């Protein structure tokens, strides 16, 4: 499926682009930036069904990497392999290697791994607790010994939520709007100071104004964190990320700097997808 439809009535712009395409050099993985995750020959199975095929990818430090591709292509599955969240699903199997700062994540203590690699999901999922206790939760279970109120405040500030909630920290998290709940979940994930934050379609349930807030917050988080984000929204990938990886049918088709991937895709399937010919 999904080969670029040839023989469409090519517009002038398309023709110009095709000319430029033929002059291009092959895509390269970013080597000039340091790497946080190095994924090699990754296969993933749900029972007998293979969902990820031989995936190779380097995720650079202190950058935002977007994963794009049509629904069901394996984006969430791949993202969940990075903190072994798939292990919570029965009868799954992973093959290949995932190195985090050079260390094999399959050999790590899984709790320690998830402290280093936090995750935020599509639907905000605050705990049925106060705003304060949501953020303090991870710190408490990790036996944090510092001053909790200071760290809760710091985390809420990093998640660009502090000003909106500082006078209602002991109210239920469910009293917040959807966008505030999502930022609360980001604050909760940030409280344990992860090196990496995985975000699986974090804005798909949010309005455009709130989406813009989350994108701005991601931009600021780059200084202290590496981000990998699954997005269904190509404009979001183009606006918000430094690198973009395009997946199709469980395979990584192309990975490049975002500006290059969107202006000069190397693979006809990438081009077909980003120009809206399928997906
Ligand atoms: N828990 C699961 N059990 C069995 N198959 C699954 C499960 N989750 C996802 N899949 C399958 O794996 C493939 C990839 O799904 P997913 O990673 O959710 O794709 P995406 O996030 O790109 O929409 C799909 O064919 C999907 O049906
Ligand atoms: Mg998904």
Give a description of the structure.
The protein is of the alpha/beta class and 279 residues long. 35% of the residues lie in helices and 24% in strands. It has 11 helices and 10 strands. It has helices spanning 12-22, 75-81, 110-116, 131-141, 148-158, 162-165, 178-191, 208-221, 234-240, 258-263, 268-274, and strands at residues 35-46, 49-60, 64-68, 92-100, 103-104, 117-120, 196-200, 226-230, 243-248, 251-257. The strands form 2 sheets. It has a 6-stranded mixed sheet, sandwiched between helices. The protein has a 4-stranded antiparallel sheet with strand order 2-1-4-5, covered by helices on one side. Residues 1-28 have low confidence and may be disordered. Bound molecules: adenosine-5'-diphosphate and magnesium ion. Magnesium ion binds at residues 75-76, 230. Adenosine-5'-diphosphate binds next to strand 2 and helix 2.
Strand content: 15-25%
Note the run of SSEs as H and E.
HEEEHEEHEHHHHEHEHEEHH
* Major beta-sheet overview: 6 strands, mixed
Please identify the structural class as seen in this structure. Answer: alpha/beta
Q: Share of helix among residues?
A: 25-40%
Q: What is the residue-mean pLDDT, rounded to a whole number?
A: 89
Determine the N-to-C terminus distance: 11 Å
What binds here, in terms of ligands, is: adenosine-5'-diphosphate, magnesium ion
Backbone CA Rg: 20 Å
Question: Number of helix segments?
Answer: 11
Strand numbers in spatial order across the main sheet: 6-7-8-3-9-10
How many DSSP-defined strands? Answer: 10
Note the quaternary state here.
single chain
């Amino acid at each position: 499926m999904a080969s670029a439809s040839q023989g469409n009535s090519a517009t002038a712009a398309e023709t110009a682009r095709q000319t430029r395409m033929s002059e291009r050099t092959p895509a390269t993985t970013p080597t000039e930036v340091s790497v946080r995750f190095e994924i090699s020959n990754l296969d993933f199975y749900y029972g007998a069904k293979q969902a990820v095929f031989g995936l190779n990818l380097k995720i650079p430090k202190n950058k935002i990497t977007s994963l794009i591709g049509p629904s069901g292509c394996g984006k969430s599955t791949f993202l969940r392999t990075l903190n072994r969240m798939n292990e919570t699903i029965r009868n799954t199997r992973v093959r290949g290697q995932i190195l985090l700062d050079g260390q094999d994540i399959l050999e790590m203590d899984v709790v320690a791994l998830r402290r280093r690699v936090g995750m935020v999901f599509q639907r905000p999922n605050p705990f049925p607790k106060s705003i304060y206790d949501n953020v303090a939760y991870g710190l408490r279970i990790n036996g944090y010994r510092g001053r909790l109120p200071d760290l809760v405040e710091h985390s809420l500030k990093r998640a660009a939520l502090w000003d909106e909630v500082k006078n209602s920290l002991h109210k239920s998290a469910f009293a917040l709007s959807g966008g505030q709940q999502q930022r609360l979940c980001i604050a909760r994930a940030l409280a344990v100071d992860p090196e990496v934050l995985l975000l699986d379609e974090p804005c798909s349930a949010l309005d455009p104004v709130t989406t813009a807030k989350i994108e701005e917050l991601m931009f600021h988080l780059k200084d202290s964190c590496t981000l990998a984000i699954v997005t269904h929204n190509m404009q979001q990938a183009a606006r918000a990320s430094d690198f973009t990886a395009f997946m199709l049918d469980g395979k990584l088709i192309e990975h490049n700097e975002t500006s290059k991937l969107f202006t000069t895709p190397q693979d006809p399937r990438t081009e077909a997808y980003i120009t809206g010919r399928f997906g």
